[in-house]
Amino acid sequence: MRSFGHKAWLSVASLGLLAAVSGCSSITDHRGYIIDQALVDAVQPGIDNRQSVEKTLGHPTFASQFGPQDWYYISQTVKTPPFRRPRTAEQTVYRLRFDGTGNLAAIDKRGMEQVARISPEGAKTPTLGRKRGLLEDLFGNVGAVGAAGVGGTSQAPTTGPNGS
Asked: What residue range is the signal peptide (predicted)?
């Protein structure tokens, strides 16, 4: 009977250890456009236009808002290690450039070289202006409220917003 208790305890401990270790695995997540290389290769500059590209590849991830109307198809694979922040493991960006008539002019492909790792310094963002303390924040406007209207005269126009 004693050996059964020891075996049961060993089984429970090994299951607990297995559960703890399995919870420490990375999570892999795909974000954005799912690339089908055969479809991307089927789109040809000089032959296709916006309508045929959208029929082949689908709606772009986003289109440029300023300048020439470029379309972007973005695909990312993000890995999240246990107890850490997500990191981009793979990234592919297809930029499709169109000419003035809407015909496909060029396709550019970029990868991980476009990923920027930004490490902010400190917990505060510096701003312009003077630094004020707590008391200045609380009592800085005392005496300033109503100073423009003292005396009862007003410099504001007596007409309404429409000029009447």
From this structure: 1-19
